[in-house]
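Components:
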Amino acid sequence: MKPLDVLIVGAGIVGSSVARECALLGWRVGVVTGGTLAGSSTVAGMGHVVVMDDSPAQLALTAYSQSVWRELVPQLPKVTEYEQCGTIWVAADHDEMAEVQARHEVYARGGLETRVLSASDLAAAEPNLRSGLAGGLLVPADGVIYQPAAAAYFLHQAQQHGAEIFPLRATAAAHGVLRLADGTSLAAPRIVLAVGAECELLPAMQIQRRKGHLVISDRYPGFLRHQLVELGYLKSAHKVAEDSVAFNIQPRQTGQLLIGSSRQYGNSDSEIETAIMQRMIDRALDYMPGLRNVSILRAWTGSRAATPDKLPLIGPAKGLADDDTLWLAAGFEGLGITNAPGAARLLVNAMVGRASAIDATPYLPARLNAGAAVAYA
Amino acid sequence: MSPPSTTDVLVVGAGPAGIAAATAAAEHGRKVIVLDDNRKPGGQIWRDSSVIASPARSASGSRKQRAIDRLQRSGATLLSGHTVFSASASGQLETLRELATGSFAERFRFEQLILATGARERFLPFPGWTLPGVFGVGGLQALVRAGYSVAGKRIIVAGTGPLLLAVAAHLSHDGANVVAVIEQAALSSLIPFAASLWRQPSKLLQGAQYRASLSSASYRTAAWVAEAIPATDGRSLSAVRITDGKRTWTEPCDLLACGYHLVPNTELAELIGCTLQRGFVQVDEQQRTSVPNVFCAGEPTGIAGLEAALLQGEIAGRACAGVATASLRSRANKEQAFARGLARAFALRPELRQLPQPGTIVCRCEDVAFANLQHPSGWADIKLQTRCGMGPCQARVCGPAVEFLLGSKPSSVRQPLYPVPLHALTATTEHAPEPFKVEPESIHKVEETA
Amino acid sequence: MPEMLSLRINGATVRVANGTSVSAAMLIAGQPTRISVTGEPRGPVCGMGICFECRAIVNGMPHQRTCQLLCEEGMTVETNR
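Structure:
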């Protein structure tokens, strides 16, 4: 049998995307997945394909990756429920409206179309928002997707191109050899760690878990048209040490409402925590009082994989590990769904020595190593 | 949410087990609150008509009344219309009360908890089972007691379990034309069970009475419903196809009541962390679960019927009050033997696994067809990729069906145990219903140009 | 005779005995309680609040379990779509 060209650890949205890109190259691909998708960072999240602008590098990656998503849309099966509903960043007051203007300009400089909504535009766009809000910024290219189905589709495509799945947990990765939980091992010249928040295989990744809560409702078609995020989200999302909540609500194609969000540091259990969930829901009710009687089917938690500088690790593990075979695609924090297809292309291009559509330097893992000289874009 | 009500003993469920448990605990000096999600106490087996005030029309009616009277005298507080959606072993439990004026979340604190959450029917999918006019067996009975008249309707009662004959007799009493009772168990497995009842002549007599009141209906064993056939309007039933595995025949009817015995309601016990054994809550001689301050009585510990529920409830109630229970134990154990006999007699035949066609819906909430349920990684990924079990019933219907069909165990339960309005999950007390503003898509949609 | 009351089900006035559940009233009226996600008409199944097939729109509120609700004078009920 032909030897493996690459081993990918993890079959979440990132691992599946990388597996697909590698298989499309004609490589022989092995995917090592410790079990089911259930419980992974991929399925715990919101499935928001969103351009984020809190740093130039983040804007570049999210915008690029979103363009890859749009390229994939025609071939995505119906079950992935991709819907280009747009995001509205909701401004509560005049200060936040000033922020809307500023971001409108940032997006414009990046060549991205957005639209500033007045208070009445906003009320017309989303009649269930409370009155008295100042306006918002509509990002029409953003979308939502049912990410478990998207991950399964990418993995399926990889399999169609010959990828093999090994349903086992990896216990060690070094110098082209991957040890598995059953005592056997696999070998390949490249090993990609697409491990979400689980960095036991390479602690130098310095990934921390940021716990989040979500609740999902029964079906209320027509209640909500866009993904709505309070503009204060950026402020709260960037607090590194404090627990925070923000109004963030997503219309699923099913008519269900997915309501978030919370961020907690240093909390790796999966228990639902009443106090922060209550804060999160109170926040949602403040923006959308009509949610009060919306029937909630489930609540759950998940872990975001956060790096110290809030940018993902995409590229060779050089600088973090003395190992030329090791590659990383991890640490996507809340943007794994958005960035997966773009990151997969950057990584594969790096592995074959091909140029990418955007500068990949800001995401190189070596930047985390204080001793290494890394050029930031 | 209002400040919590505090009690010594909190009982969940006001069926026979819960009533017996609460009465015993309260009579022995404990402060007791009983929470029940129905409008009136009695559970499923003691469910009365909500339309006609029935003056003790049956022996069970008067027995029920005596039990409720005694519960009232015991000093226990009964709170009806409370659905438990969250609880923890640390002594906190949350309920939702739905009233015409809105819904209210309430919090309770307890020292000891007695779970008497009863059982529900097991439903198995077959072509046509989602048609209006196809009900559960206990389901149709409950709807009749809630005011649905079956007078003159041709009804087939099918599935398995002792409920079939009992419900058929009640429907017939209510004026229905019960065309046939179709029991999947073979006579050869029912006879040893019936023979074992000689020690409990009341149960034997009851069965004979039911059978006698159904003289016009045909009673078939070793047969089952293969398909429900829709009328031309596509939204009602015209006939049912019945098979015994060799021969298949069609029986015209207006309604089908079909249920495959009972499955225990163990969700609350699981949420609290009680150990389950073969699908039932594991309890000791005093009905204590693996969680020290949590007890369980009745069907969640084994489908054993009314007498077992009453005895186990009383044991649990006494145990909470620190009173001896040994005198009741041997009788309770005898009823456990009855439970084992029930399970053997009404074991599901493997042919029932062949009933769903590829297009037959298994998950009614999300309309997931049988063909989509083949996933190598098990139930968790089946759920994720198909949404099977992710609708509002939270797999209470499709979970036991999938387990029987595919051998896949539903994954662990989470709060909220039942769908609840969003406000119930916050600290805010808010009762006034907000009107929904749902407008046609076209009116206000912001033009999107990308 | 039990006391009667009237409610509107999908626009038509229906008279039922006091104490009738909304599920039973919808069965009496011959109306499905909900339309499933693939467009099938559905009616109540379990009668005890666990199957959620009896969800209907009651007084403008979607997804109400009608088997757990009693009819009230003047109530409006619609099939949940």
